[in-house]
Amino acid sequence: MTTVIKLDRRNFLKGSAMVAGGLVLGFYLPDANEAEAQSAASATPVRMNAFIQIAPDDTVTMTIHKPEFGQGTVTSLSQLLAEELECDWKKVKTQFADTIDPMYMMGAPIQGVYGSTAIRTSWDPLRRAGAIACQMLIEAAAAKWGVQASDCRVENGTVVNMKTNARVTYGSVAEAASKLDITPRAYLKDPTTFKLIGKTIARLDTPDKVCGKTTFGIDVKLPGMLYASLERCPVSGGKVESFDATAAMKVPGFRYAVAISNGVAAVADNTWSALQCRKALKIEWDEGVNATASTASLKKMFADLVEKPGAEARKTGDAQAAVAAGAKKIEAVYEVPFLAHATMEPMNCTAVWSPNECQIWAGMQMQNISRNIAAKAAGLPVEKVLIHTQYMGGGFGRRGRQDFVQEAVEIAKAVSGGIPIKLTWTREDDMQNDGYRPMSRVKFTAALDANGSPTAWMVRVVAPSFTGMRNGVDNSAVGGVANIPYEIPNIAADYHAPYVTPDVLNDFRPVGFGIPIDYWRAPGANANAYYTESFIDELAVAAGKDPIEFRKPLLTKNPRLLATMELAAEKAGWEKPLPAGHFQGLATGGGSGSLSTQIAEISIEKGKVKIHRIVTAVDCGQIINPRGAVQQIESGIIFGIAQVLRGNITIDKGRVQQTNFHQYEPLRMDEVPKIEVYLMPNTNNPTGLGEHSNPHVVPAITNAVYKATGKRIRELPLRLAGLA
Amino acid sequence: MPIEFTLNGKRQSVDVVPQMPLLWVLRDTLGLTGTKFGCGMALCGACTVHINGQPTRSCTLPISMIAGKSVTTIEGLSADNSHPIQKAWIEVDVPQCGYCQSGQIMSAAALLAKKANPTDADIDEAMRGNICRCGTYQEIREAIHRAAEHRTVSHPVEPVLQASIDARAAASASPTRSASATARSLREWRSDQAGGAQ
Predict the structure, then answer these.
(1) Which residue of A has its CA nearest to B98?
(2) Does A430 reside within a domain?
(3) Does B61 touch chain A (CB under 8 A)?
(4) What pLDDT, on the 0 to 100 scale, is given for residue A501?
(5) Nearest to B29 among A270, A669, A679 (CB)
(6) Structural domains of chain A, count
(7) Residue in chain B lying closest to A521 (CA)
(8) A450 contacts chain B (CB < 8 A)
(9) Contacts with B24 from chain A: Cβ below 8 Å
(10) Same domain membership, residue A577 and residue A446
């Protein structure tokens, strides 16, 4: 099979004029990388297109347009480019794309990483970029030899003249190749001939990450840089009324105290001094509209709403009538709390401002949005803002929110004088000033017929909105409970937004009433998979059927999902004898385009849930890097386990009550169960994995808890029931 | 008054406020940013360094406390990623985002120096203070077992630790390996799945 691809060569060259080699490097580069930058500059790489540069020494530099926060883009996107370029993998280097260019957005309005889309959206364009560059290199070599391109082949970074067996390296023809105006006629490779795609290739970023050499945003150091720490109102949305820096000025290292839109910043000679100066600030706050908000008051508000009809989100058949006519009616109410992202690297941003230009250095999930926000804060047009993308110490959605960028730029502008300012958040800042996974509540009503088959599925969702409302409905909030994989003839869903925050993608959100909410690993699904897969399990119990046997007839139109369920059941030993006191629970479904089933095996020890084993079978289409794929799935499972056991952000008097890892505890080494991941590779287009597994591990575990205890878990986390 | 100590084998003198935690002296004053800030309360382990060979959280340790002591950071663990833990970390490709990994590696290196063949229980005990939000724990466990397999006493470990390693090597001529079922099955599974992996 050979795929003829449609190419527009100009598309791949569009970015080249803007991304001149040393444009953003030089003076402001972090110290540690200066030597490297100089040696790179001396190699004078030739830009083949927006993604590929080739130096005379054959070094191939891939421009990574999807920032890296652990999901493996530096390596996997390079694999896509190198597969078709046929370059020498050992000579591949990478750099992040620091210009904003539609080429890097893959047809979306965002340049960045979100929605587990890096591979899905890059799969075709990056292979094409590699193929075109390869064709250009071949044609340049052919011209040099005076032969036809068809007389040449490529091999590991060299063009071979098949008539004479002469060879030239890519580096030696790159300059000539880059000037060719070719008619692209490249073909994408037959997947059976892949050399890099589908192989466990060692991550390119690992060696620097095991010796402390990787520069994360928090590690940026610029000449003359000062360090900032920002005291914010303890109540979300509150404002500074007045402040007194008299005591702070006496702290060694003090330089400035400046009020900005979101608090008062202490600026000092080092981070520690800045923290001490900040502690010495005396600030009067206007706590604003959230001063009386609490988890209890929000719960009551949500509970009232869930009893009232909301905006229609789905209507298929007549669910009301089907419930009335059903042999059995089942009702249940579920709820989940706010959750923090708690990336290991706290938020930070380094900014330098002058009347003509602003530059920012940070781990950014959405680079063009960061630039927009920086421009607004700087009072400059976006063209006057330069961004420098750094490695991110975790993201999970948090680094799409732009508060830290806005704050750093405002401080740099207030300090002025072209002094670089690094704003570093403390862990407490991070945990208490997040955009949280929304608290939500759903009410289900379903009916079974006399055979125990479901005839109606009704759900009402109460969840604050943050992804934009359409006809009164936030699709992210209702998606996973209204559009279920199961074939049920009558489905109805409606929705209430207790409060709405503007879409982060359009602007930095002003904070009004309500606790700030935002994208959190698998937005929507991170609550809705729990709701749907718990309630379908309840229906299976009501029908007196095994959870798999109950689901199977409802999934006949989804054979790939069914196949994951069958494989997971086989590998987990579903219905086979388990060790004494062990119980299994199952959850299945799609997410980020991928399909999977998870089976959790637990026991109750001294009244607490102990998770022994998670087995999952995953269909994510074509796999780029199997080890990377497995690690993404494991990562989500571990993320989800912390959530189901004890993830809980609570509010009192408008204040987030959790401050640090002793009160909001990620999973630790000794709590990790055995995780078995079974990939089901195929040649369908690749689908997402970064946010695929964390939603479904939650109901897999709570369904196992039901089997073990007879208690249906309708509120998270398990700690609230004393089970963790 | 300057505070003197040994940093990665070299004498170091710093003149900072005595309460300033070692973490910020390393990162801001000395420019060694491999040691990370995660919590500031010794809860997450991202800031782990070795003080006289012992894994220690540097975020809560005032610089005045380390006068005259020997500090090893991730930058000083080896010059070329040749420490057995670093080698194993690369082989297993442990890091995802990588932010916690300096701390994980320093804790693991200290464990391996103390116990040549740590059990899963030893690993739980030594590593439970280091949080990884990406969830690389299975890989960390596998890498520690792997490092224990390859380790040779000829590797230049910190002198403070060498004595204890030598003592244990003498005491136990044939250590028994107790690799976990988890680590083993994961490895076997991976080699099956990866096929012609490179």
Answers:
(1) A209
(2) no
(3) no
(4) 84
(5) A270
(6) 3
(7) B134
(8) no
(9) 270-272
(10) yes
Contact A592, A691 (CB under 8 A): yes
Contact A210 B90 (CB under 8 A): yes
The H or E element spanning position A681 is none
**Whether residues A384 and A513 fall in one domain:** no
> Do A408 and A505 fall into the same domain?
no
Radius of gyration of chain B (CA): 17
CB contacts < 8 A, A to B, total: 208
Q: Which of B28, B100, B186 sits opposite A344 (nearest CB)?
A: B100
pLDDT tens-digit profile of A168-186?
A: 999 999 999 999 988 777 6
Write out residues 619-638 of A within 8 Å (CB-CB) of B: 626-627, 630-631, 634-638
Say if residue A359 is in the same domain as residue A495: no
Q: Residue B150: its pLDDT value, please? A: 83
At A95-139, the pLDDT tens digits run 999 999 999 998 888 999 999 999 999 999 999 999 999 999 999
Q: How confident is the model over B32-58, as a mean pLDDT?
A: 98
Residue span of the structural domain in which A525 resides: 440-721
| B195 vs A contacts (CB less than 8 Å) | 199
Q: Do B39 and A661 touch (CB under 8 A)?
A: yes
A155 shares its domain with A284? no
User: Do B98 and A70 lie within an 8 Å CB cutoff?
Assistant: yes
Does the pLDDT at position B185 exceed 50?
no
Q: Which of A367, A390, A424 is the last residue of a domain?
A: A424
> Does A607 map to a domain?
yes
Determine, yes or no, domain membership for A521.
Answer: yes
Domains contained in chain B, CATH given: 3-76 (3.10.20.30), 84-194 (1.10.150.120)
In CATH, what number is assigned to the domain containing residue A470? 3.30.365.10
CA of A380, closest CA in chain B: separation in Å? 30
Return phi, psi of residue A620, to 5°: -120, 30
Tell me: do A686 and A707 sit in the same domain. yes
Does B142 touch chain A if contact means CB atoms closer than 8 Å?
no
Rounded to two decimals, the pTM is 0.91
pLDDT tens for each residue of B131-158: 999 999 999 999 999 999 986 544 444 4
Q: What's residue A504's pLDDT?
A: 61
Looking at residue B196, its pLDDT comes to 31
Residues 6+ apart with CB under 8 A from B9: B72, B76
For residues A469 and A528, membership in a common domain is answered with: yes
Residues of chain B with Cβ-Cβ distance to A88 below 8 Å are: none
Distances (CA, A) of A620 to A141, A530, A676, A692, B49: 39, 21, 16, 10, 40
The two three-digit tokens of residue A85, written as one number: 């370029």
Place of tokens 């001490």: A276
The CA distance from B16 to B31, in Å, is 14
Q: Is B146 helix (H, G, I), strand (E, B) or coil?
A: helix
Q: Rounded to 5 degrees, what angle do the CA atoms B110, A341, A535 make?
A: 115
Distance CA A585, CA A700 (A): 5
A144 and A170 within one domain: yes
**Residues from chain A contacting residue B106 (CB–CB below 8 Å):** none
Interface probe with B: pick from A213, A423, A669, A680, most Cβ of B within 10 Å: A669
The domain boundary residue, chosen from A424, A448, A474: A424
CB contact under 8 A, A345 and B40: no
| Regions of chain A short of the pLDDT cut 50 | 1-42
Q: Let me know: does B135 contact A637? Beta carbons within 8 Å.
A: yes
Size of chain B, expressed as the number of residues it contains? 198
Q: In this predicted structure, what is the pLDDT of residue B57?
A: 98
Q: What is d(CA A496, CA A678) in angstroms, rounded to the nearest whole number?
A: 39
Whole-angstrom distance, CA of residue A307 vs CA of residue A297: 16
